């Protein structure tokens, strides 16, 4: 029975992969289409990339997306990491309550969060624009950082910081040279998730922005109402950027581990000599 189920499972997996990635391949191919058609390929051309590059509004939205994503990632990673470390030193009941509150924005529908943030900014009289978008992105990125860092902190010896300070380290040195290196994998994972969520967000950004400030997702949404193949061009560049980041994230640790193993293998040879 198991042998018969395996081909069906593989077929479902292949169909799922095709369903997810075929539209992306289709988009990349038609980003080089010579005509405006989105259904028939008439010839190879870079005209839509050139038009995208010369479109100041589109490039401004791309710059806004990158700046907001980078700032939101850095700030939310720092705040989320410090919050997770502080929670680890709190009482159990405090941890449980705060973590339940932290999980709420993650499980809450984005449209509800977006409306809530919009009403909050309107109530306190803050004019919506770049700053409100940045604050909103930081707000919904922090829970993901805490969620990624907290398991790593729980795996540490609770007396690790105290032992470092007993050996002469200051509280800051114990944090930066002892605790942070031990949880850097969780910090990096949280930062990567925060960057992805911020870069990709549309619903919350759409409700909290104003004064003509648009990120890439809002720009693509407004352009989708009319046929504009430049959408394919800028989307292809985003896919290329994400692919390069994923390759770097997976390849760099492998190269580092091989280098460390090579250096570790050289040590006995040098001692024997």
Description:
80% of the residues lie in helices and 0% in strands. With 273 residues, it is an all-alpha fold. The chain starts with a helix and ends with a helix. Residues 269-273 have low confidence and may be disordered.
Task: Give the terminus-to-terminus CA distance.
Answer: 59 Å
Given the helix and strand composition, which structural class is it? mainly alpha
What is the tally of helical segments? Answer: 12
Taking the sheet with the most strands, its summary is: none
- Name the CATH class: Mainly Alpha
Mean pLDDT: 83
Share of residues in helices:
over 70%
The count of strands amounts to 0
Structural domain count: 1
Classified in CATH, the superfamily is MetI-like
The CATH topology label is MetI-like fold
Low-confidence segments, given as residue ranges, are: 269-273
CATH architecture: Orthogonal Bundle
Radius of gyration: 24 Å
Overall body shape:
globular
The run of helices and strands is HHHHHHHHHHHH
Q: Roughly what fraction of the amino acids lie in strands?
A: under 5%
């Amino acid at each position: 029975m198991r042998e018969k189920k395996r081909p069906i499972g593989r077929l479902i997996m292949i169909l799922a992969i095709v369903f997810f990635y075929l539209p992306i391949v289709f988009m990349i191919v038609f980003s080089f289409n010579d005509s405006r058609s989105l259904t028939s390929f008439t010839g190879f051309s870079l005209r839509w990339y050139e038009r995208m590059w010369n479109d100041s509004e589109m490039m401004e939205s791309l710059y806004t997306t990158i700046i907001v994503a980078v700032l939101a990632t850095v700030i939310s990673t720092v705040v989320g990491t410090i919050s997770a470390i502080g929670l680890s030193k709190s009482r159990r009941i405090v941890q449980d309550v705060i973590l339940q509150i932290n999980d709420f924005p993650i499980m809450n529908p984005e449209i509800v969060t977006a409306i809530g943030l919009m009403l909050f900014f309107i109530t306190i009289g803050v004019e919506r624009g770049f700053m409100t978008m940045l604050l909103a992105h930081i707000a919904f990125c922090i829970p993901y950082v805490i969620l990624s860092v907290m398991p790593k902190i729980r795996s540490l010896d609770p007396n690790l910081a105290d032992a470092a300070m007993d050996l002469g380290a200051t509280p800051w040195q114990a944090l930066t040279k002892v605790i942070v290196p031990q949880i850097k994998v969780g910090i990096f994972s949280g930062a990567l998730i925060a960057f992805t969520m911020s870069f990709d967000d549309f619903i919350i950004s759409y409700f909290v922005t104003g004064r003509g400030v648009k990120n890439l997702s809002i720009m693509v949404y407004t352009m989708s109402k009319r046929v504009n193949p430049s959408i394919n061009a800028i989307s292809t560049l985003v896919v290329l950027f994400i692919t390069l980041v994923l390759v770097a994230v997976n390849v760099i640790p492998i190269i580092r581990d091989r280098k460390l193993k090579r250096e570790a293998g050289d040590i006995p040879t040098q001692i024997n000599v």
